[in-house]
Amino acid sequence: MKWERLLTRGRFGEKPTDTNLDSSRSEFEIDYDRIIFSAPFRNLQDKTQVFPLPDQAFVHTRLTHSLEVSSVGRSLGKEAGARLLAKYPNLQSTGITAYEMGAIVAAAALTHDIGNPPFGHAGEEAISDFFKFHPMGTCWESHVRPEQWADLCDFEGNAQGFRMLVSKESGLKLTYATLAAFTKYPRPSFIPHRDISRKSQKKYGFFINQLSDFESMGRYLGLEKSSPECWFRHPLAFLVEAADDICYSIIDLEDGCTMGLVTFEETVRLLQPILKDKFNPEKLKGKSQSQNLGALRAMAIGTLIRETVEVFDQYEESMRKGTFDKALTDIIPSAQALGEITKVSVQKIYRSKVVLEKEAAGFQVLEGLLSVFSKALYHQFYNPTNFSGQDKSILRLLPEDFPLHKGWGEEVNPYPLLRSLIDFISGMTDKYALNLYRRVKGISFPGS
Description:
By secondary structure, this protein is mainly α. The protein has 3 domains: 3-126 and 157-234, Hypothetical protein af1432, CATH 1.10.3210.10; 127-154 and 359-448, Orthogonal Bundle (eoxyguanosinetriphosphate triphosphohydrolase fold), CATH 1.10.3550.10; 236-353, putative deoxyguanosinetriphosphate triphosphohydrolase fold (Orthogonal Bundle), CATH 1.10.3410.10. Helix content is 57%, strand content 0%. The mean pLDDT is 88. It has 19 helices and no strands. It has helices at 3-6, 27-36, 39-42, 62-87, 98-110, 120-133, 135-138, 146-153, 157-166, 176-182, 211-221, 235-258, 264-275, 289-321, 335-350, 353-382, 389-395, 414-426, 430-440. Keywords: Hydrolase. Residues 62-249 form the HD domain. InterPro entries: dGTP_triP_hydro_central_sf, dGTP_triphosphohydrolase_C, dGTPase, dGTPase-like, HD/PDEase_dom, HD_domain, PHydrolase_assoc_dom.
């Protein structure tokens, strides 16, 4: 793969002859602005990061997390871009700048969680479990193809994000470079063999009905394949992944300390190996815990950015050849320290009572919503004798553009129908999902 092609400015869903008439912004800055003003991005303000439905304003949501990941991503992209331009002078003839490479990573990082459902990773599991175990989910298996069923039984936020970004109805028409940098897992869900040594095959990055969209992007950018079903990552996807890894490691720890789940002393102990000789305990005296946490977090993130850029510069050629496929934060000098932070975070933050209780509630909410809507759809299209007045009322709650236009006597394609249902429910905010669940279950009434 060649940088000249990987960084081209073509835009998904537009003809190659379309030109940007706004000379004040680069194509990649336009990507960033389109994302910022989009409804799916705004919805992240009320989606769980670690602490579902937080009562404290200082705890991160998906929105604040995404903004911070984007900020770190811009720094990573700009510094890595400056090194690439120095290493490959021919790149300068394309007009690409280090700032634009930072803008690609910033835009892709801004969208990295845009496909996540309510209630965080518990929401992903809840959707998957519904189709694997719930009677109103398993009833659809005989009506779809095996590769479609694999999508439904393993909901993946990354694939949902790609679907949202390339949607014909509401897609943002981002540049191919930004879309590719967004895609950490360039493969479909249903493959005969997964190479566990490749980080890019750990999960999947697009649903089967977005395969042609991904293929178009791959051809345009010159993405190469590691197997008939899997592609190599765009090298900038490694930086997007690193930005996310850096932020959730350091900032989830900060949130855990603020919530009282990890002591300040233990937080300092965990950050010290990253800060090394930059850590000066004397500078912590006379300041509030919040001020000290902010200062330590900033220094730690700055160190991790520098280390990540060094490793990216070392391996970028191997990335383009497809021989490097690891998380950058797993091989930087501070990798062991990050591993220790993750270990403590799992024990004391991610498995804390407040998190587990609210995740359990999230399972109930999403299963409840999926069951009532799935039952109504199944009755309408496959069991019309049981299609009740209650089912009709439930279906009237679906969005106006929901594909209910097929008549009972027509052949039904259930996969896009179910994808649309998942779009509707996964796109909800935590509070909207909770309120709708209460209403359809009769627990509360509108206006109460």
